[in-house]
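Give me the fold.
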Amino acid sequence: MPLSIRRQPFLIGASGEQRMIHVDLDHPRLHAGGGQALFHDHGGATDYLEEVRSVLLALHDGVLATPPFIDALLRHGLLESFVLDIQLDDGSHNRLAGFHTIDEARLQALDGEALAGLAQAGHLLPIYMVPASLSRFRDLIERMNRRRAAGR
C-alpha cells in the first residue's frame, strides 16, 4: 500500500524546525469508540504510533530528496515523456498521459563516472526501478479488465 495512503489520517506538521504529527479529525478513517491506541496507559508511544511516525518520516525524506533527484535526471537527460494508450477488453479506450519515465537508451549510454555519481547520490536504484515498474502495467490492465467484467 502506498505510504501516502498508509499515513492517513495523519499529517506532518512543523513548529519552527520541529516536525510534529497532526491528526485530521475529519478524516473518514476516524470513528468514535474504536481504533488504535497511540500511547500506552503508562506513557510512551505504541508500536502503531511508531509505525505512523516512520511512514511520515519516509514521506518527508522523500519530499526533500525529490529536487536533487530531478536535477540529476535533467542533468543527464534521462527524463522522457510517457503516454500509455490501452484498449480494455470491454472496448473502452484509456490514456495515461502527462507523466515521465526514464530514457533507457540514454541511461545505457552513461559513462562510468556519471553512473558512479548517480549511485553515490543514492539515485541509481530509483532510476532503475522506474523501467522495472513499467513491467507491472500488464498486471494493472488485467486487474482493470477483471473489475470491469465483474461490473465494479
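The first strand starts at residue 10 and ends at 15.
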